Amino acid sequence: MEMVIDFPGGLRVDAHLRDHTVMTDQPPANTAPMPFELFLASIGTCAGIYVLGFCNQRRLPTDGIRIVQRNQANPATGMMDRIDLEIQVPPTFPLQYHDALVRSAELCKVKKTLEHPPEFQVITKVVESV
Asked: What does pTM read for this prediction?
C-alpha cells in the first residue's frame, strides 16, 4: 500500500491513502489530531475492530461496550512505557465471553506490528514537479 504525505500549510501534514485524506496538525493551531495521537488511536480502534467482529459473529449486542485506552509515557523520554486497554461491558454482557473479548482485542494487527516492528528505510529522491 502506498500513501502520499504532503504539507498543505502551517504545521499541517496530511496523508492520502485510497480515497481518504488523514489530516494532522501541531499546536498552536490544532485543527486536527497530532500524528502521534493518531498513532495511539490506531491501537484502540484496531482492538475495537476485533471486539466488534467477535460480537457480530456471535450476534452479541455492542450497545454499552467501549474500550478505554490509557497511555503511560516515560517522563524522561516521552515514549510510551505502557498502553492499557480496558474493555468495558454492560452488566448484561455474558460473563462467558469476557476472556474471549480480551483474546480478540489482542489479535489487533497494530499491536502485533508494534510487538514485531518492521524495518524502516528513509531516503530522499529528486523528482520532477508534480
From this structure: 0.89
